[in-house]
TrEMBL record:
Family under the similarity heading: Belongs to the PurK/PurT family.
PROSITE patterns: ATP_GRASP (PS50975)
InterPro entries: ATP-grasp, ATP-grasp_carboxylate-amine, ATP_grasp_subdomain_1, PreATP-grasp_dom_sf, PurK, PurK_C, PurT/PurK_preATP-grasp, Rudment_hybrid_motif
GO biological process: 'de novo' IMP biosynthetic process
Gene behind this protein: purK
Coiled coil: none
Quaternary structure and interacting proteins, as annotated: Homodimer.
Summary of the function given for this chain in its UniProt record: Catalyzes the ATP-dependent conversion of 5-aminoimidazole ribonucleotide (AIR) and HCO(3)(-) to N5-carboxyaminoimidazole ribonucleotide (N5-CAIR). Catalyzes the ATP-dependent conversion of 5-aminoimidazole ribonucleotide (AIR) and HCO(3)- to N5-carboxyaminoimidazole ribonucleotide (N5-CAIR).
Name of the protein this chain belongs to: N5-carboxyaminoimidazole ribonucleotide synthase
UniProt xrefs under PANTHER family: PHOSPHORIBOSYLAMINOIMIDAZOLE CARBOXYLASE, PURINE BIOSYNTHESIS PROTEIN 6/7, PUR6/7
UniProt catalytic activity: 5-amino-1-(5-phospho-beta-D-ribosyl)imidazole + hydrogencarbonate + ATP = 5-carboxyamino-1-(5-phospho-D-ribosyl)imidazole + ADP + phosphate + 2 H(+)
Limits of the ATP-grasp domain: 91-286
Domain of life of the source: Bacteria
Organism: Cellulomonas biazotea
């Protein structure tokens, strides 16, 4: 999704792909194959490049440090990226920065976990510090026995270390996307609401509906403080929990997660903002002036295509095009698997209920379900 922006700006992208059939390899001409842990492949990749950046966090930091020492512009740097790789490091540092987070503790033994649960009403959320995504590596627990397997794996070194957090009684999940240049220029997009189903983002509404202005300002302020405090370069997504205020004041926000790259919560910007997160990430890591982040419409809804009954969701593109000519389809060229993120649809407009319904109808067609509006062209 960075390719169209790179092409327009005359930027040559070279991408290290794990598989010649991967989404990126289908659209990037210069796409050598190699593992993200392959030092030689990464050294060849950065030859002659102005900057090195990432589309996921699973990269070897010691190598990134060595490349930076050799003069490669690694953005974000390993010292920042570690906060998106390790949840314990992230929680500790955000605490030092005074950024509001759920109560948490590192836990290595069943007794430590039992003690924590005793202080949080008997329930908590255990997370692997590394390697989790889309809710894998997150488990709601009421007793240490619920994560006996993870505790054992952490203890014998075959699994990641663990943290436990209070189970936050959030009213909804919000996200803020922010971009930062090496010299410090920072821009945020409007705060969005992200709707999760089964631990996976299903829908994003931009901007977040009915957001209290004080909550909005707090969320934006947190995102900028995190970007600056961690010395992030490029795009940073800050996932937040919105929590009702017991005294009837503005809802509060707590940080759940960080991602240091273009993120699913920002896919709406491709069609819904003056500058997309992908263009902005390129600008930021190349130290170019950042683009305008203003929305192009009152509302933009992004709906993910999660799995499909079709062999190939492209078979339904004509139907979507016929039933909703303004819906923007983005497919990733991935093989269909149950629940897999195969693409997304962006719809913009002035009436939120209508925009949401249209995004849902388009994704339903791409998932091979009957069009709920009944308006699809049968051809
Ligand atoms: P991942 O790294 O897999 O994206 P997250 O830490 O974002 O994992 O957690 C996935 C989902 O689990 C969140 O979107 C949220 O719905 C729920 N969750 C995570 N942490 C908590 C918490 N402390 N309290 C309540 N729900 C949580």
């Amino acid at each position: 999704m960075m390719t169209p922006a790179a092409t327009a700006l005359g930027i040559h992208l070279r991408v290290l792909v794990e598989d010649a059939a991967s989404s990126a390899a289908q659209v990037v001409v210069d796409a050598p194959v190699g593992a993200a842990s392959d030092a030689d492949a990464i050294r060849r990749l950065v030859e002659g490049a102005d900057a090195l950046t990432f589309e996921h966090e699973h990269v070897p930091n010691d190598l990134l440090d060595r490349l930076a020492a050799d003069g490669v512009a690694v953005r974000p740097g390993a010292h920042a990226l570690v906060h998106a790789q390790d949840k314990a490091v992230m929680r500790r540092r955000l605490g030092e920065l005074g950024v509001p987070c759920p109560a948490w503790a590192a836990v290595a033994t069943p007794d430590e976990l039992t003690d924590f649960l005793a202080g949080t009403g008997g329930v908590g959320v255990v997370k692997t510090t590394r390697g989790g995504y889309d809710g894998k590596g997150v488990r709601v627990v009421r007793a240490a026995a619920d994560v006996a397997d993870w505790l054992a794996a952490a203890a014998d070194g075959t699994g990641a270390a663990l943290i436990v957090e209070e189970k936050v009684p959030f009213t909804r999940e919000l996200a803020v996307l922010v971009a930062r240049r090496p010299g410090g220029e920072v821009r945020t997009w409007p705060v969005v609401e992200s709707v999760q189903r089964d631990g996976v983002c299903a829908e994003v509404v931009a901007p977040a509906p009915d957001l209290h202005p004080a909550t909005r300002d707090a969320a934006l302020d947190i995102a900028v403080r995190v970007a600056e405090g961690l010395d992030v370069t490029g795009v940073l997504a800050v996932e937040l929990f919105e929590v009702a205020d017991e005294d009837g004041g503005a809802p509060r926000v707590l940080v759940n997660e960080l991602a240091m790259r273009p993120h699913n919560s920002g896919h709406w910007t491709i069609d819904g903002a003056v500058t997309s997160q992908f263009e902005q990430h390129l600008r930021a890591v190349l130290d170019l002036p950042l683009g305008d982040t203003a929305p192009r419409a009152t509302w933009t809804v992004m709906a993910n295509v999660l799995g499909s009954a079709l062999d190939d969701p492209t078979d339904a593109v004509a139907q979507v095009a016929a039933s909703d000519p303004a819906a923007k389809v983005h497919l990733y060229g991935k093989e269909v698997r149950p629940g897999r993120k195969l693409g997304h649809v962006n719809v913009s407009g002035d009436d939120l209920a209508d925009v949401r319904a249209r995004a849902a109808a388009a994704t339903a067609l791409l998932r091979g379900e009957p069009d709920p509006t009944g308006e699809a062209d049968p051809a």
